[in-house]
Design a protein that fits this description.
The chain has a 5-stranded mixed sheet, with helices on one face. It starts with a strand and ends in a 22-residue tail after the last strand. By secondary structure, it is α+β, with helices and mostly antiparallel strands.
């Protein structure tokens, strides 16, 4: 069973639209972060974003709640556009369109289970 979750943040990036389950865009790259411990998912997303062209859509797959939250916070802190996010079985998928990086006024802390900050 697939569960769709719309993600919309307040603040500087609130103007970036989010789309529901009707997203039909092409995914340029899949970043599989399943079963990775912190800070590995963040480092994998950071690398994928640095290699992606502006406007490309990346699909990030995680299966840990902490990883999901940290990836979403990491993207928010850099002004990246979360196009869609949904759960499929034990996995959580985040579709992310690479945007020009912006500095947000109130960054959210990215904290791993070990308590260290990764932002």
């Amino acid at each position: 069973m697939e569960k769709t979750v719309s993600v919309q943040f307040e603040g500087a990036a609130a103007s970036t639209p989010t789309v529901g389950s009707d997203f039909q865009g092409a995914v340029a790259r899949v970043v599989d972060c399943r079963d990775q411990l912190c800070p590995k998912p963040i480092l994998m997303v950071k690398k994928a974003l640095s290699e992606a062209a502006l406007g490309e859509v990346l699909e990030i797959i995680v299966n840990e709640h902490v990883s999901k939250e940290n990836v979403l916070k990491y993207c928010w802190n850099r002004g990246q556009q979360v196009v869609k996010s949904y759960e499929s079985g034990p996995d959580f998928h985040i579709l992310l369109r690479k945007s020009p990086e912006v500095r947000v006024e109130k960054p959210m802390p990215v904290i791993g289970p070990c308590g260290a900050r990764w932002d």
